[in-house]
Amino acid sequence: MRSLAIVIAAAVALAGCRSTPQTTPVATAAAFDPAEAAYIKKTGAVSIHGHAFWRDDKGGTVNAAGEIVRLVPATRYARERFAVLYRGQRSLPTSQIPRVDVDPQYADFTRTTRAESTGRFEFDNVAPGVYFVTSQVNYRDKDAYVQLNAGSFHQRLRTGNDGGAMFETVTVSGKEEKPIKLVLTNDR
Asked: Over the stretch 129-176, which tens digit does the pLDDT of each residue have?
């Protein structure tokens, strides 16, 4: 009976460690400037072809099948925003992605596409400029959870990875003769 109480106490303590992320303001010194991001609306002659996938805890690959891939002008606002979101890294596990407020105009100055079932994606007619290409891979690894059952107490604890978000920086000069190839992954 004592070991049952210890298991229940441990499960309750661990369950309290995982809180629901709250939406918080992103502290950026730069305000969003539509004029700085306007090059996203221009028509260029360059294509970006990419593959987005997440390397799971077992070394397997989970493609970004059907996920949104976003092309973001690397403006001062976006650079500061990505620094806060990604904490100086290029990828974050799902459990560490903060929910943050965003300037309402920001999304109007991005482009999106949806990755194919293989995780492949394309952006065509991209104008010269520096961009962030970002996506997420979300999945549920059934082996990354432990179910604790003790009497009427039932708790499911996450022990592994369920994907995450990642980005890469791409510079388009406008002089490219072939599509720019890009890999978005957490495996660096």
From this structure: 999 999 999 887 656 556 677 777 777 665 556 789 999 999 999 999
The owner of tokens 């406008």 is 174
- For the stretch 21-41, pLDDT in tens is 455 555 667 899 999 999 999
Domains of the chain plus CATH, in order, are 42-184 (2.60.40.10)
For residue 70, give every residue at least 6 positions away whose Cβ sits within 8 Å of its Cβ, in sequence order, or none: 110, 111, 112, 132, 133, 134, 135
Query: How many whole angstroms separate alpha carbon 23 and alpha carbon 21?
Result: 7
Burial class (CB in 10 A: 0-12, 13-18, 19+), 125: exposed
Residue 173: in which H helix or E strand, if any?
A: none
d(CA 45, CA 179): 10
| CA dihedral angle for residue 147, residue 151, residue 154, residue 160, rounded to 10 degrees | -20
**143, 159 contact by CB (below 8 A):** no
Task: Give tens-digit pLDDT for 108-134.
Answer: 999 999 999 999 999 999 999 999 999
Cα(51)–Cα(53) distance, rounded to whole angstroms?
7
